[in-house]
Amino acid sequence: MKDTFIQARLVQKDLIRVSIFTATQWNSINAFLRVDRRNDVKLHQTRMSSVSGAVILDYKLEGPLSLGHGYSVVVGELGVVPLDVSEATTFPGFDEDFYYAGDDLGTTYSKEKTTFVIWAPLASMVIVKCRKANEKTWSLFEAKREDRGIYRLELKGDHKGLYYRYLITNNGVTNETTDIYAKCSTANGEESVVCDFKELEIDMNRDKVSNPIAYTESIIYETHVRDFTISSKTNIENKGKFLGIAEEGRKSKKGHPAGLDYLSYLGITHLQLLPIFDYKTVDEIDPSTKYNWGYDPAQFFVPEGSYASNVLDPLSRISDLKKMVSKLHERGIRVVMDVVFNHVYEFQSSVFEKTVPNFYFRRRHDGKMSNCSGCGNDLATERPMVRKMILDCCKWWQDVYSIDGFRFDLMGLIDCDTLNMIRHRARKKDPYFLVHGEGWDMWGDAKVPSGKMGNYFLMPEYAFFNDNFREDLRKYSCGDLGVVHYLKGSFFGNAVDMVDKARFDSARRSTNYIECHDDYVFFDYLSSRRGDLSLEDKLEVVKMANAVTLLSIGIPFIHMGQEYGQSKFGERNTYNKGDYYNKMSYELRDERWDMVEEVASLIKWRRSHEFSKIYESSVIDSHFFIEDINGIIKVTDTFVDRGLNNPVLYINPTSEDVYVEKDKERLVLVDNSGVIKERKTQKETLVKKHSIILVSDPE
């Protein structure tokens, strides 16, 4: 009707509210509830509120409305409108009534049949739209509703490789979408694909990474699949691809190891990859047109297609990723996956909103959508079916792709219970599975405890990116001696009381880093603070900071290029700025190969000494002594019974060489790399400017 707007909403289990805005005169309204376009049930008005041009009418039902039907409200002579049941997701008991515990969401394939199962509790109809890869004509099949909001369809026959989408009718509107639980996909997530994962099974070389490893024995190296392999200065063939990381025998123009061989040369224990699940803002068919790190998730169970050797083959991304992980395992390198369960790219057009409106995303106390990350709308991880999706996803990546750890993006936006369930399930299968993340406090409207750093005691075994370590070491390395007392605590992973009270109950809670993919890389931070330093001096400072990170108590973390002081030309957040800012500069690395050698030697030294297994606060407090001598930090290991040769570490961030009086007559001097340089009997130890020196008793 002209100049009339009508809305009908289910606002309680048994209460419908009709809002009418009209310029038309009316006296009374007889309303009916129409069920599945067939049966009309008269509604009985219980309340009316009106002002000029607007009226709100409440209609009490005889009992709770049963979801799963198509409802509309006939509003007298004014017309018929769909009944919006989206608010049902907020009603008491909804999560309990519609929780589905089955493990068959998505598709289950066999040669005899394929079963489609989707959770869509508000939907009145679900149609499976499918076609074969070489056909253009789609076939439509109606799924049958079952208890707990499940729709199921069973197709007889062998449907391997079948393309499919869902047509889901919610609130009288039909949306076409992919499958939340899709495990395989065509390019750019256009269609979900039925896949036989058994035929893609390969040896994942689990036996090569089954040895016990304490958190503090881990040495994490962070990179991005494209960034690490895209350079034209190597002979890596599959540039920008999963397979590029799996290639052996690759070298740079100067003959130094590249790709996989470079990771082996460094001696790291864990390779942490920026998001490798399917994300939104890169064209998988032509990934050179738009760059992104991948913190805009689209399909949580599907590998990113731009990293596939043949994106037009839906199986390529799966098999390529498996080969990459298997090859890394063969080298003894575990794989940590950066997961983004705190937000999605855009909630309105997401598969989640199209499947179950008003359910998957968190709202603030005032009803507005929550966007505490500033990157997109926050997933309501505390809701049982959202939590189940996340748990199922983590299990899938561990079971199918043999992932060895998760790094949680903005973990402070995920509830503690979900995080603990992920950890418990992962550790049950792999006792050395690594879980860590960003524990920033960002959950302003929290109703349950979140994964912020301050709640570490609620999350056993989780480690946190320690921004105290980052900021203290950055400032100290730049010559700010005023932070020396704070760095003393950070050096021990903030696990013992120093100037500040301990932040954690153990150093294995602390991921010690000076740079990661976002914010300033350390070389650029240093350049912004110390423009007076020459390039040579800056690189000495970088060496010192890297050495302190790798000798600290906690989990040392190195970002790609940090080992030789790579710059991003002053840009702080290069998530979408392309290869120029982000790719690994193998040419620069070759020029500074001596820096790489020092990092590799230091990693080898750390991995060969027992101190890397130290993390308990009481042990740190009892057996290490740290002091500052006019701003020079001295760390002494006093527990000689461990066979550590009583090492002493000196750190000098100043621009002056310093002599420090030694405690014993005979000493062995070791440089930043852990290589013995010379034996001394002098009474003083020279600590050069912008450097560290490790001193220990000779055997």
Describe it.
This protein has 16 helices and 35 strands. It has an eight-stranded mixed β-sheet, with no helix packed on it. Strands 18-19-22-23-24-25-26-27 form an eight-stranded parallel barrel, surrounded by four helices. Helix 7 (384-401) packs parallel to helix 8, helix 9 (467-477) crosses helix 10 (484-491) and helix 11 (522-529) packs across helix 12. The protein is elongated. Residues 664-670 have low confidence and may be disordered.
What structural class results from the helix and strand content?
alpha+beta
Rg for CA atoms: 30 Å
Shape: elongated
Mean pLDDT: 92
Largest sheet: 8 strands, mixed
Helix content: 10-25%
Strand fraction band? 25-35%
Count of extended strands = 35
Tally of helical runs: 16
Ends: how far apart?
A: 95 Å
Condensed summary:
The chain is an alpha+beta fold.
Q: Descriptors for this entry?
A:
699 residues, alpha+beta, eight-stranded mixed β-sheet, 16 helices, 21% helix, elongated
Topology:
Elements: E1 4-12, E2 15-22, E3 31-35, E4 39-42, E5 44-51, E6 54-60, E7 71-75, E8 79-84, H1 94-97, E9 106-109, E10 113-119, E11 125-131, E12 139-142, E13 144-145, E14 150-156, E15 163-170, E16 173-177, E17 192-193, E18 220-223, H2 225-229, H3 242-246, H4 260-266, E19 270-273, E20 277-279, E21 297-303, H5 316-330, E22 334-339, H6 351-355, H7 384-401, E23 405-408, H8 416-429, E24 434-437, E25 463-465, H9 467-477, H10 484-491, E26 510-512, H11 522-529, H12 535-551, E27 555-559, H13 579-582, H14 586-591, H15 593-607, H16 617-623, E28 624-629, E29 632-637, E30 648-652, E31 658-661, E32 667-670, E33 676-680, E34 684-687, E35 691-696
